[in-house]
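=== RUN LOG ===
request id: a7f3
mode: sequence -> structure
chains: 1
length: 346
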Amino acid sequence: MEFSAQQIADIIHGTIEGNPDIQVRNFSKIEAGKPHTLTFLANPKYTPFIYETQASIALVNDDFVPEKALPVTLTLIRVPNAYSSLAQLLSLVSQAQTQKQGIETPSFISPSAVIPKKNVYIGAFAYIGENVRLGENTAIYPHVYIGDNVVIEENTILYAGVKIYADCHVGKNCMIHAGAVIGADGFGFAKEGDIYNKIPQLGNVVIEDDVEIGANTAIDRAVMGSTVIGKGVKLDNLIQIAHNVEIGENTVIAAQTGVAGSTKIGKDCIIAGQVGIGGHITIGDKVSFGAQSGTLSNIAPGRTIMGYPAIDVNKFLRSAIIYAKLPELATKIDKLQNEIEVLKQK
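=== RESULT ===
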Protein backbone atom coordinates (compact mmCIF):
# COMPACT_ATOMS: atom_id res chain seq x y z
CA MET A 1 0.00 0.00 0.00
CA GLU A 2 1.62 3.25 -1.17
CA PHE A 3 0.72 6.89 -0.58
CA SER A 4 2.07 10.06 -2.13
CA ALA A 5 3.12 13.10 -0.16
CA GLN A 6 0.10 14.92 -1.56
CA GLN A 7 -2.32 12.22 -0.39
CA ILE A 8 -0.77 12.27 3.09
CA ALA A 9 -0.86 16.06 3.28
CA ASP A 10 -4.53 16.02 2.31
CA ILE A 11 -5.33 13.59 5.15
CA ILE A 12 -3.49 15.52 7.87
CA HIS A 13 -4.02 19.02 6.39
CA GLY A 14 -0.29 19.63 6.00
CA THR A 15 1.81 21.87 3.77
CA ILE A 16 4.28 20.22 1.38
CA GLU A 17 7.85 21.39 0.82
CA GLY A 18 9.37 19.27 -1.91
CA ASN A 19 8.02 16.66 -4.30
CA PRO A 20 4.26 16.10 -3.85
CA ASP A 21 4.41 12.93 -5.96
CA ILE A 22 7.02 11.09 -3.89
CA GLN A 23 5.67 7.71 -2.73
CA VAL A 24 6.08 5.94 0.64
CA ARG A 25 4.97 2.47 1.72
CA ASN A 26 6.11 2.25 5.35
CA PHE A 27 7.19 4.20 8.44
CA SER A 28 10.67 4.57 9.93
CA LYS A 29 12.42 6.25 12.86
CA ILE A 30 14.28 9.37 11.83
CA GLU A 31 17.64 7.99 12.98
CA ALA A 32 17.10 4.85 10.88
CA GLY A 33 15.21 6.28 7.92
CA LYS A 34 15.07 4.29 4.70
CA PRO A 35 13.97 5.23 1.17
CA HIS A 36 10.23 5.04 0.51
CA THR A 37 9.37 5.50 4.20
CA LEU A 38 7.75 8.31 6.18
CA THR A 39 9.42 9.60 9.34
CA PHE A 40 8.78 12.48 11.73
CA LEU A 41 10.58 15.06 13.86
CA ALA A 42 8.85 16.06 17.10
CA ASN A 43 11.59 15.93 19.75
CA PRO A 44 14.30 18.60 19.23
CA LYS A 45 17.08 16.24 20.37
CA TYR A 46 16.55 14.21 17.18
CA THR A 47 17.00 17.26 14.92
CA PRO A 48 20.55 16.31 13.77
CA PHE A 49 19.19 13.14 12.16
CA ILE A 50 16.94 15.02 9.75
CA TYR A 51 19.99 16.32 7.88
CA GLU A 52 21.16 12.80 7.06
CA THR A 53 18.00 10.68 7.00
CA GLN A 54 17.29 8.56 3.95
CA ALA A 55 13.52 8.67 4.51
CA SER A 56 11.50 10.08 1.63
CA ILE A 57 8.99 12.14 3.66
CA ALA A 58 9.32 13.76 7.09
CA LEU A 59 6.52 15.26 9.17
CA VAL A 60 7.76 18.39 10.96
CA ASN A 61 6.17 21.10 13.07
CA ASP A 62 5.24 24.35 11.37
CA ASP A 63 7.93 26.22 13.31
CA PHE A 64 10.80 23.94 12.22
CA VAL A 65 13.61 26.00 10.65
CA PRO A 66 16.46 23.99 9.03
CA GLU A 67 19.93 25.08 10.18
CA LYS A 68 21.59 23.56 7.10
CA ALA A 69 20.71 21.86 3.85
CA LEU A 70 18.29 18.93 3.99
CA PRO A 71 18.78 15.81 1.85
CA VAL A 72 17.63 16.48 -1.73
CA THR A 73 15.58 13.25 -1.59
CA LEU A 74 13.57 14.45 1.42
CA THR A 75 10.13 16.03 1.19
CA LEU A 76 8.75 17.85 4.24
CA ILE A 77 5.12 18.00 5.31
CA ARG A 78 4.58 20.79 7.81
CA VAL A 79 1.79 20.40 10.38
CA PRO A 80 0.93 22.09 13.70
CA ASN A 81 1.88 18.96 15.67
CA ALA A 82 4.04 16.31 13.97
CA TYR A 83 3.57 13.70 16.69
CA SER A 84 -0.22 14.04 16.66
CA SER A 85 -0.31 13.84 12.86
CA LEU A 86 1.84 10.71 12.93
CA ALA A 87 -0.58 9.13 15.41
CA GLN A 88 -3.44 9.92 13.04
CA LEU A 89 -1.66 8.22 10.12
CA LEU A 90 -0.65 5.18 12.20
CA SER A 91 -4.24 4.80 13.35
CA LEU A 92 -5.54 4.80 9.77
CA VAL A 93 -3.00 2.18 8.69
CA SER A 94 -3.71 0.04 11.76
CA GLN A 95 -7.43 0.07 11.07
CA ALA A 96 -6.87 -0.99 7.47
CA GLN A 97 -4.58 -3.85 8.52
CA THR A 98 -6.72 -5.24 11.35
CA GLN A 99 -10.20 -4.87 9.91
CA LYS A 100 -11.88 -8.29 9.78
CA GLN A 101 -15.45 -9.34 9.15
CA GLY A 102 -17.58 -12.43 9.50
CA ILE A 103 -18.27 -15.05 12.16
CA GLU A 104 -15.70 -17.83 12.51
CA THR A 105 -16.40 -21.32 13.79
CA PRO A 106 -16.43 -22.82 16.28
CA SER A 107 -17.89 -20.02 18.39
CA PHE A 108 -20.95 -19.81 20.64
CA ILE A 109 -23.55 -17.07 20.23
CA SER A 110 -26.66 -17.19 22.40
CA PRO A 111 -29.91 -17.12 20.40
CA SER A 112 -31.01 -14.10 22.45
CA ALA A 113 -27.89 -12.06 21.58
CA VAL A 114 -28.35 -9.14 19.18
CA ILE A 115 -25.60 -9.25 16.55
CA PRO A 116 -25.35 -6.90 13.53
CA LYS A 117 -26.01 -8.71 10.27
CA LYS A 118 -22.93 -7.16 8.67
CA ASN A 119 -19.81 -5.19 9.60
CA VAL A 120 -19.01 -7.39 12.59
CA TYR A 121 -16.21 -9.84 13.34
CA ILE A 122 -16.47 -12.71 15.82
CA GLY A 123 -13.39 -14.91 16.03
CA ALA A 124 -13.16 -18.64 16.66
CA PHE A 125 -13.84 -19.94 20.18
CA ALA A 126 -15.53 -16.70 21.26
CA TYR A 127 -18.45 -17.00 23.70
CA ILE A 128 -21.33 -14.52 23.60
CA GLY A 129 -23.92 -14.91 26.34
CA GLU A 130 -27.62 -14.26 26.68
CA ASN A 131 -29.08 -10.85 25.77
CA VAL A 132 -25.71 -9.47 24.67
CA ARG A 133 -25.93 -6.51 22.27
CA LEU A 134 -23.10 -5.75 19.83
CA GLY A 135 -22.93 -2.52 17.82
CA GLU A 136 -21.94 -2.06 14.19
CA ASN A 137 -18.26 -2.50 13.31
CA THR A 138 -17.40 -4.36 16.49
CA ALA A 139 -14.55 -6.87 16.39
CA ILE A 140 -14.50 -9.78 18.85
CA TYR A 141 -11.23 -11.71 18.53
CA PRO A 142 -10.76 -15.42 19.32
CA HIS A 143 -11.24 -16.73 22.88
CA VAL A 144 -13.15 -13.65 24.05
CA TYR A 145 -15.80 -14.26 26.72
CA ILE A 146 -18.80 -11.90 26.87
CA GLY A 147 -21.19 -12.59 29.74
CA ASP A 148 -24.96 -12.22 29.86
CA ASN A 149 -26.58 -8.80 29.34
CA VAL A 150 -23.35 -7.11 28.23
CA VAL A 151 -23.64 -4.16 25.83
CA ILE A 152 -20.75 -3.34 23.49
CA GLU A 153 -21.32 -0.31 21.30
CA GLU A 154 -20.13 0.35 17.76
CA ASN A 155 -16.52 0.48 16.52
CA THR A 156 -15.17 -1.29 19.60
CA ILE A 157 -12.45 -3.96 19.45
CA LEU A 158 -11.93 -6.75 21.99
CA TYR A 159 -8.63 -8.53 21.36
CA ALA A 160 -7.93 -12.22 22.04
CA GLY A 161 -8.73 -13.53 25.49
CA VAL A 162 -10.61 -10.51 26.84
CA LYS A 163 -13.21 -11.40 29.46
CA ILE A 164 -16.28 -9.19 30.00
CA TYR A 165 -18.40 -10.36 32.94
CA ALA A 166 -22.20 -10.13 33.01
CA ASP A 167 -24.08 -6.80 32.95
CA CYS A 168 -21.11 -4.61 31.99
CA HIS A 169 -21.33 -1.83 29.40
CA VAL A 170 -18.58 -0.87 26.94
CA GLY A 171 -19.01 2.31 24.90
CA LYS A 172 -18.18 3.36 21.35
CA ASN A 173 -14.72 3.39 19.75
CA CYS A 174 -13.09 1.47 22.60
CA MET A 175 -10.11 -0.89 22.36
CA ILE A 176 -9.49 -3.58 24.98
CA HIS A 177 -6.26 -5.53 24.62
CA ALA A 178 -5.55 -9.21 25.15
CA GLY A 179 -6.13 -10.73 28.56
CA ALA A 180 -7.95 -7.78 30.11
CA VAL A 181 -10.70 -8.73 32.59
CA ILE A 182 -13.66 -6.39 32.98
CA GLY A 183 -16.18 -6.94 35.75
CA ALA A 184 -14.59 -9.58 37.98
CA ASP A 185 -15.62 -9.41 41.63
CA GLY A 186 -14.14 -6.64 43.71
CA PHE A 187 -11.98 -7.61 46.69
CA GLY A 188 -14.69 -7.45 49.33
CA PHE A 189 -14.76 -9.55 52.51
CA ALA A 190 -16.17 -9.11 56.00
CA LYS A 191 -14.25 -10.78 58.84
CA GLU A 192 -16.30 -12.71 61.36
CA GLY A 193 -14.10 -14.33 63.97
CA ASP A 194 -11.41 -16.18 62.08
CA ILE A 195 -13.37 -16.32 58.84
CA TYR A 196 -13.55 -13.88 55.93
CA ASN A 197 -17.08 -13.90 54.52
CA LYS A 198 -17.38 -12.84 50.89
CA ILE A 199 -19.41 -9.69 50.19
CA PRO A 200 -21.38 -10.26 46.96
CA GLN A 201 -20.46 -7.77 44.23
CA LEU A 202 -23.78 -6.95 42.58
CA GLY A 203 -22.85 -3.90 40.48
CA ASN A 204 -21.13 -3.66 37.12
CA VAL A 205 -18.46 -1.81 35.14
CA VAL A 206 -19.32 1.05 32.77
CA ILE A 207 -16.67 1.97 30.21
CA GLU A 208 -17.54 5.15 28.33
CA ASP A 209 -16.62 6.06 24.74
CA ASP A 210 -13.07 6.29 23.29
CA VAL A 211 -11.39 4.30 26.07
CA GLU A 212 -8.31 2.11 25.54
CA ILE A 213 -7.43 -0.60 28.07
CA GLY A 214 -4.08 -2.37 28.01
CA ALA A 215 -3.26 -6.07 28.13
CA ASN A 216 -3.92 -7.95 31.38
CA THR A 217 -5.50 -4.96 33.08
CA ALA A 218 -8.29 -5.79 35.55
CA ILE A 219 -11.28 -3.57 36.33
CA ASP A 220 -13.50 -4.89 39.13
CA ARG A 221 -17.27 -4.62 39.23
CA ALA A 222 -18.90 -2.48 41.90
CA VAL A 223 -20.42 -3.80 45.10
CA MET A 224 -23.50 -1.75 44.19
CA GLY A 225 -23.81 0.73 41.34
CA SER A 226 -20.96 0.97 38.84
CA THR A 227 -17.20 1.16 38.53
CA VAL A 228 -16.87 3.92 35.92
CA ILE A 229 -14.10 4.54 33.37
CA GLY A 230 -14.77 7.95 31.83
CA LYS A 231 -14.71 9.01 28.21
CA GLY A 232 -11.28 9.15 26.60
CA VAL A 233 -9.43 7.40 29.45
CA LYS A 234 -6.28 5.48 28.45
CA LEU A 235 -5.11 2.63 30.67
CA ASP A 236 -1.79 0.86 30.17
CA ASN A 237 -1.04 -2.84 30.70
CA LEU A 238 -1.16 -4.53 34.12
CA ILE A 239 -3.30 -2.01 35.97
CA GLN A 240 -5.69 -2.86 38.82
CA ILE A 241 -8.84 -0.77 39.21
CA ALA A 242 -10.85 -1.84 42.26
CA HIS A 243 -14.60 -1.86 42.87
CA ASN A 244 -16.60 1.39 42.74
CA VAL A 245 -13.67 3.45 41.46
CA GLU A 246 -14.55 6.35 39.17
CA ILE A 247 -11.96 7.71 36.69
CA GLY A 248 -12.68 11.05 35.02
CA GLU A 249 -12.50 11.88 31.32
CA ASN A 250 -9.16 11.87 29.48
CA THR A 251 -7.11 10.63 32.42
CA VAL A 252 -4.12 8.46 31.47
CA ILE A 253 -2.60 5.79 33.73
CA ALA A 254 0.66 3.92 33.11
CA ALA A 255 1.48 0.28 33.85
CA GLN A 256 1.45 -1.45 37.24
CA THR A 257 -0.63 1.22 38.93
CA GLY A 258 -3.22 0.14 41.49
CA VAL A 259 -6.30 2.09 42.58
CA ALA A 260 -8.10 0.89 45.69
CA GLY A 261 -11.86 0.74 46.12
CA SER A 262 -14.32 3.66 45.98
CA THR A 263 -11.67 6.23 45.03
CA LYS A 264 -12.63 9.01 42.62
CA ILE A 265 -10.01 10.28 40.16
CA GLY A 266 -10.68 13.54 38.31
CA LYS A 267 -10.44 14.56 34.68
CA ASP A 268 -7.20 15.04 32.72
CA CYS A 269 -4.97 13.42 35.34
CA ILE A 270 -1.60 11.87 34.46
CA ILE A 271 -0.61 8.89 36.58
CA ALA A 272 2.81 7.36 35.91
CA GLY A 273 3.87 3.74 36.39
CA GLN A 274 3.72 1.79 39.68
CA VAL A 275 1.62 4.41 41.46
CA GLY A 276 -0.45 3.27 44.43
CA ILE A 277 -3.66 5.14 45.30
CA GLY A 278 -5.52 4.28 48.49
CA GLY A 279 -9.22 3.70 48.86
CA HIS A 280 -12.14 6.06 49.57
CA ILE A 281 -10.24 9.24 48.59
CA THR A 282 -10.68 11.93 45.92
CA ILE A 283 -8.05 12.99 43.40
CA GLY A 284 -8.84 16.35 41.78
CA ASP A 285 -8.75 17.26 38.11
CA LYS A 286 -5.39 17.69 36.33
CA VAL A 287 -3.31 16.03 39.04
CA SER A 288 0.01 14.47 37.93
CA PHE A 289 1.69 11.60 39.80
CA GLY A 290 5.36 10.77 39.34
CA ALA A 291 6.36 7.11 39.00
CA GLN A 292 6.15 4.93 42.14
CA SER A 293 4.23 7.57 44.07
CA GLY A 294 1.68 6.61 46.70
CA THR A 295 -1.08 8.44 48.52
CA LEU A 296 -3.69 7.63 51.15
CA SER A 297 -5.28 11.09 51.29
CA ASN A 298 -7.22 13.47 49.05
CA ILE A 299 -5.23 15.46 46.47
CA ALA A 300 -6.37 18.94 45.42
CA PRO A 301 -6.79 19.75 41.70
CA GLY A 302 -3.82 20.79 39.60
CA ARG A 303 -1.03 19.45 41.82
CA THR A 304 2.08 17.60 40.60
CA ILE A 305 3.23 15.14 43.25
CA MET A 306 5.79 12.39 43.74
CA GLY A 307 7.11 10.00 46.39
CA TYR A 308 5.54 8.15 49.29
CA PRO A 309 3.68 9.63 50.92
CA ALA A 310 3.27 11.77 47.80
CA ILE A 311 4.29 15.42 48.19
CA ASP A 312 4.80 18.38 45.89
CA VAL A 313 7.28 17.33 43.20
CA ASN A 314 9.67 20.24 43.84
CA LYS A 315 9.75 19.45 47.56
CA PHE A 316 10.32 15.78 46.71
CA LEU A 317 13.28 16.60 44.47
CA ARG A 318 14.84 18.81 47.15
CA SER A 319 14.27 16.05 49.70
CA ALA A 320 15.86 13.48 47.39
CA ILE A 321 19.05 15.55 47.28
CA ILE A 322 19.13 15.64 51.09
CA TYR A 323 18.39 11.91 51.30
CA ALA A 324 21.42 11.14 49.12
CA LYS A 325 23.60 13.13 51.54
CA LEU A 326 22.26 11.52 54.75
CA PRO A 327 25.35 9.37 55.44
CA GLU A 328 27.60 12.46 55.26
CA LEU A 329 25.17 14.49 57.36
CA ALA A 330 25.00 11.73 59.96
CA THR A 331 28.78 11.70 60.22
CA LYS A 332 28.86 15.47 60.64
CA ILE A 333 26.15 15.36 63.32
CA ASP A 334 28.02 12.66 65.25
CA LYS A 335 31.18 14.76 65.06
CA LEU A 336 29.35 17.87 66.28
CA GLN A 337 27.79 15.93 69.16
CA ASN A 338 31.21 14.71 70.22
CA GLU A 339 32.56 18.27 70.10
CA ILE A 340 29.64 19.51 72.22
CA GLU A 341 30.29 16.81 74.80
CA VAL A 342 33.95 17.85 74.97
CA LEU A 343 32.95 21.49 75.43
CA LYS A 344 30.53 20.54 78.23
CA GLN A 345 33.34 18.85 80.14
CA LYS A 346 35.50 21.99 80.15
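=== NOTES ===
The radius of gyration is 26 Å.
The chain has a mean pLDDT of 95.
=== END ===
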